[in-house]
Structures are given as structure tokens and as C-alpha cells.
Design a protein that fits this description.
single chain; mainly alpha; Arc Repressor Mutant, subunit A; 2 domains; three-stranded antiparallel sheet; two-stranded antiparallel sheet; 7 helices; 5 strands; 52% helix; 8% strand; rod-shaped
Amino acid sequence: MEIKFTIDQFEGPLDLLLHLIKENDIDIKDINVSEIAEQYLEFIRQMNELDLNVSSEYLVMASELTYMKSKTLLPSETSEEEEEDPKEELINRLIEYQKYKELSAAFKDLEFSRQELFGKNPSYLDEFKEDGIIIDNDITLDDLLKAFANFNVRKENDKPLNTTITKKEYSVSERSHDIMNRLKKYKKIEFTELFEVVNKEYVVVTFLSILDLARKGHLNIKQDKNLSQIFILARGEN
């Protein structure tokens, strides 16, 4: 058999043996020790003829294969205590090594897949606030954020033990339209009364709608004194 590969291609003697088995297109459990040993030894001989340094682990495997080949040529001797079959031991080592290589390849694929993903650390709403922004009179964005946080705490405490959640999509434009219609009717609404539905999507969209309407000047936000209730007023109302 002509050997067309070098020792640098393999990670060890088991890797070389797996290659030879694959080249012969046979199952690991059906290996012919004499044939595989001859091919392996031919590889070692060619490496020596090329004056290449063959590591000791390859030579140890060569001696093991030579011993196994000699066992197949000698008549079998039975005894009360059967010795462990070296061929069976080699097959088990090859199977375990093949599993290791397959698992290593799977982990490498996962590593490449993970490199294509980019994560983002959790962030908070106050990350986007600008210090000094005044929404109306003495009401700052920080006051509104505190009121929003207090509302969330109260709703969390009031939440029933068993709830049924119905999935529904909300948009800022639709929610803003609903808020303006209510202001046209009632003129003045307490801030927390706008959060009729207690789920994350509805609450976040409502809060963003209030901020957007205030920014555009479509409504006013008023608080009579520090820490008191915050009211949403129709434009022009005091």
C-alpha cells in the first residue's frame, strides 16, 4: 500500500488507525488486525526511510499491532483463565477515540455558531434620560420614572395568584390615539389610571406614548406638590 500522507496530519496513533480504517471502508468492529497492522507498519517504515522523527507513541502502537498480528498467526491456546483479547481492547479504544473526535467537532461547530451571535447586557429606562429635561413646570422625567416604578410595584403586589394572559400587540401610535380620545372626554386623568391592563407590553407602550405626546406638546403633565399624584391634562388645561 502506497502511503501518501505525513505524520503531521495525525494527532496520534489512534488517529492514524482511524484514517486507515476509513480508507479501507470497513467498520471498526470488523477490522482485520493483520491487514491494518501491515499498513500501519508500512507507514512507520516510510517515515524512517525519509529520516523523519517518529514519536515514541507511534512506535509503541507499532509494537502492540505486531504482537496482535503474531497472536493471529499462532494457534490459540485455551486456559481456565482467558486473557483479555488485545484486539477487543484496541477496538474499544478506537470507538472511544472516535466518539471524542466527533464530540470535539460538534463543540467546534458550536463555537463557530456562537461567534455569529452578539448579546446585549440588560439596560434600564433611566439610561436614556437626559438630566435637566423639564416636561412641564416642576415635573421632570425623573419624577415620571419614579411614578412609573411605584405603579409597577403596586400592580405587582395586587396581581392575582392565577392569571390568564392573552397575547396582543400594542403600538405607540394606537395607544397615543386612545389617550388623546380620553383626554378630549375627561380633560384630566390621574397618571396611573391610564394603565388599565397589567402586562409588560401594554404598560411599556402606554408609558412611551405619554412621553411621546408630552414631547410633541399634545398634553401637559402636572403635579401639585412633591411626591403627590401626577395628572395628565389635555392641552390648554391647568
